[in-house]
Amino acid sequence: MKPAPFDYVRAESVTEALDVLSQEGADARVLAGGQTLVPMLSMRLARPRVVIDIMQLPELNRIERTGGTIRVGAAVRQRELERQSDLAAKQPLLAAALPWVGHAQTRSRGTVCGSVAHADPSAELPLVLIALGGEIELRSRRRSRRVQAAAFFTGMMSTDRKDNELIEAVSFPAARPGTGYAFREIGRRHGDFAIVACAAMVDARTARLAIGGVADRPTARELPLPGDPALGDALDALAWELDARDDLHATATYRREMVRRLGRQTLEEAARCRA
Amino acid sequence: MPRLSAASPHRVRFTLNGRTVSGQAEPRMLLSDFIRHVVGATGTHVGCEHGVCGACTVQIGGVPARSCLTFAVQVEGAEIRTVEGLAPAADRLSPLQNAFRENYGLQCGFCTPGILMSLDALLRDRPDAAEPEIREFLSGHLCRCTGYTSIVKAALQAVRQRREEAGHA
C-alpha cells in the first residue's frame, strides 16, 4: 500500500505544468487535492513517472461568478465552494449535492475539478455538471478548448481529456429564475459511493433528470413534467436504458427500481422548489 | 521549480503542533508515514491507508484531512496539528479528550486520534453543533468498538461544557 516512486514537480506556473504534461504525456499525472489520485497511487492502480502539483497556482484557485455561470478553477477545493455563502442562491443543485461528496475530511482537500477529471460513474459533481449542462475548460501547450459535459464523460473513469491537457476550470450554469432544483442519493452510508444519485431541474414547461451510479457515466434526459401521466413510463424506459448491473452494493433490479422511485421523488421535489 | 527526483530524499519542513519539524522524504512518502516514522510522533494511527477509515486524520491548516491521502512534500510550510497537540499539558487532557474518557468514547483506542482531530475542528468551527451534524461528521470515521453512541455523547458533553463555560465568563 505504498506508491511506486515518482518525480514530483510543484508547478510555479500553468505554463510549466503544461510543458511537463506535453513532454511526459501519459506518464504524468496532475495532482490537485489528491483524494482520488493518492489512493490510486498507493494501490498502484496508477504508476506515473512524474506527478505535477498544481495547488500553488493562484490563477487556478478562483471561483468566478460571471454572466450566468459559476466558474471553478482547478485548484479550488470542494470545501471552499461548499462554504460560499451565496451558493444556495446562485445554484441550489450544486449546494445540495456538495455535502454528499465524500466526507468533510476529504472535501477539505479534494478539488471540484479533480472529481470531474476522475469521472467516477457514481460521483456527484460530474452528475451535477451533466444535469445543468456545464462545460469543462481544457488547455494544452498548443490550444485551449471547451467541452460540453455531455461530450466530456466518455465511459467509466474515462473522459475526453487528452494526455497533454490540463483541466483548467469547470463552469456550472447558474440557477435560472422559475426553475426548481433537487438532489437525492441513496448509498449504504452517508459519504459512501452512491448506489443511485438523482439530480433534477424543473421549470414551467420542461423537466430534466440526471442519474448517477447506474450507467458507466452520468446520464441526463428530458422527461414529462411531474403530474403528467406519461412520466411513469418514461422513468421506466430510462431505468432500462441505463443498463444497470449487479455489484457488491446492489442488484440491477434494485437500481432500476431506485431510478423509478428516487427519480420521481427528485423531480417532484424540484417542482415544489420552483414555487 | 526543479523536479524532485523519485530516487532521492528531499528536505520537507512544516509546523507540527506549533513546533517546526523537518526531515527527509522521497516524493512518494505519505504524510502519515512522515509524521510517524521521520518525526516519530506515533499518536496518529494508520488504518486502511486509502482514505476510508479516518484513523490517520490530522488537521492541515486547521482543517481535518487524511494524512494517508497527502504526500509529505505537499505540506511544505503548512501548519499541521495531530492528537499530540490537543492536551494543554502532559498531565492534563483537553475538555474534548476528557469527555471521551468520562463517556467511554473509546475502547481499543485505534480510531480515537483521528476522531478527536475531526471533532476538535468541528467544535471550533461550529461550537453549537447538534447531534445530526456530529453524526454526519463522524461518518468520515470507522470505529469497530463503540457503536458510536458513546462518541456522540462525549462530543455533546464537550459542546455543553464549552457553552456553560462561555456562559460563566
Rounded Rg of chain B? 17 Å
In the CATH hierarchy, what is the architecture of the largest domain in chain B at level 2?
A: Roll
Number of helices of chain A: 11
Largest beta sheet: strand ordering of chain B: 2-1-5-3-4
Nearest-integer average pLDDT of chain B: 96
The helical percent of chain B reads 25-40%
> How many extended strands of chain B?
5
* Computed CA radius of gyration of chain A, to the nearest angstrom: 19 Å
CATH superfamily of the largest domain in chain B: Beta-grasp domain
Task: Work out the helix count of chain B.
Answer: 5
Shape assignment of chain B: elongated
Oligomer: heterodimer
Uncertain stretches of chain A = none
Overall mean pLDDT of chain A: 97
Number of domains of chain A: 3
CATH topology of the largest domain in chain B: Ubiquitin-like (UB roll)
Sketch the major β-sheet of chain B: 5 strands, mixed
What is the N-to-C succession of helices and strands of chain A? EHEHEEEHHHHHHEEHEEEEEEEHH
Query: What is the percent of helical residues of chain A?
Result: 25-40%
Major sheet attributes of chain A: 5 strands, antiparallel
